[in-house]
Design goal:
single chain, 353 residues, 2 strands, 75% helix, disordered N terminus, SCL35B1-4/HUT1, transmembrane helix, 3'-phosphoadenosine 5'-phosphosulfate transmembrane transporter activity
Length: 353
């Protein structure tokens, strides 16, 4: 049994303060926060996706993708450490074994996701990553013994059906499609599902900050991956390969890593200032734009089946969001219907139960 921590965190910024790149966003008006967050999410994540695909398209990086992940984790470790130091946060690590487990799952998620780009059509990888709820739900059942509502089960079924349809379209028209790529991205999703549950356990039982969890995840993951590459004899061959293609690896990889790290900060800012519905809407539309950019920048065949399959997944995402907010959503819908005189003013929502 885990003992509940009694140490409280007083050195991190106030919960009402939002920092991005060291700048306090709390003084901005809601409209400015919305505009800055949306701009940051679109610019950084579209850049992130384009660079990730460019790195694998420009070089045969399949054998060296773990070194890209090592480079990415090194940058993330430095950035998260600087963020902690900027806030005057004192690291506390009596539960290093738990952080090591989270680091392994974080490493598995990112490393497998990076590796899958070498074997999969990039839009397919994005679609699979949209369906993180599937392993999270399964992990919640297996790890925490949770029970889920009919809405959440239906959402997972819709996402699963959308994934199957999208994959079948990919098989029929994409020359790059391989089942090994699907296997890699599926394993990455499983790591994501377990990771979210273990992070939740740590934050609930030990009252630790998200910044500390991220720092230990990246730094321990970096040490673990460096050890594996050294023992396997792949560290120096990967290093020499990256040196021979410095611009496409170190150069693109640096901007790719910065985009991924700070993109998360803008998403958190949007969730904090405007709620989950706005954040999901923006990030879903951003993923659609990323897929469109991929088809434009990197020539590949297209089918309308991608659109219908993607819509199934989007419906699943919003069904899950509706389940989490159905009382407030039903009340808002009822008020709107009343204002339009489509229902009687004394009517009550039949979905509030």
């Amino acid at each position: 049994m885990m003992e509940r921590a009694t140490i409280k965190i007083n050195t991190m910024p106030n919960n009402n303060e939002i920092y991005i790149c060291g700048f306090n966003m709390s003084s901005l008006t809601p409209n400015w926060k919305l505009g800055v967050s949306i701009a940051g999410i679109f610019i950084l994540y579209i850049c992130f996706g384009a660079l990730q695909e460019a790195i694998f398209s420009a070089n045969d990086l399949r054998s060296y993708s773990p070194f890209l992940t090592l480079y990415q984790f090194g940058i993330y470790s430095v950035l998260s450490f600087l963020e902690l130091r900027a806030h005057g946060y004192q690291l506390f690590n009596p539960w290093i074994h738990l952080y090591a487990l989270v680091a392994v799952l974080t490493l598995g998620s990112i490393a497998l996701s990076n590796a899958s780009v070498g074997f999969l059509n990039y839009p397919t990888q994005v679609i699979f990553k949209c369906c993180k709820m599937i392993p999270v739900l399964l992990g919640g059942v297996l790890i925490q013994g949770r029970r889920y509502s009919i809405y959440e089960v239906l959402a997972v079924l819709l996402m699963t059906l959308g994934l199957i349809c999208f994959t079948l379209v990919d098989v029929s028209i994409q020359p790059k499609f391989t089942l090994f790529g699907v296997f890699l991205v599926s394993l990455a999703l499983c790591c994501d599902g377990a990771l979210g549950n273990f992070q939740e356990i740590i934050m609930k039982n030990y009252v630790r900050s998200n910044s500390e969890i991220l720092f230990y995840s990246y730094s321990l993951g970096f040490c673990l991956l460096a050890s594996v590459l050294t023992i396997s004899g792949n560290l120096f061959p990967s290093f020499y390969f990256f040196n021979d293609h410095a611009l496409q690896t170190y150069g693109y990889g640096f901007i790719f890593s910065l985009s991924g790290y700070f993109g998360v900060q803008f998403v958190l800012c949007l969730v904090h200032s405007h709620g989950a519905l706005t954040a999901v809407t923006v990030t879903t539309f951003r993923k659609a734009v990323s897929i469109a950019v991929s088809f434009i920048m990197f020539e590949k065949p297209f089918s309308q089946g991608y659109i219908w399959s993607g819509l199934l997944i989007v419906f699943g995402l919003y069904l899950n969001l509706y389940n989490k907010n159905r009382l407030s959503w039903n009340a808002a819908i009822l008020n709107k219907l009343k204002s339009c005189r489509l229902v009687k003013s004394d009517a009550k929502s039949i979905l509030t139960a």
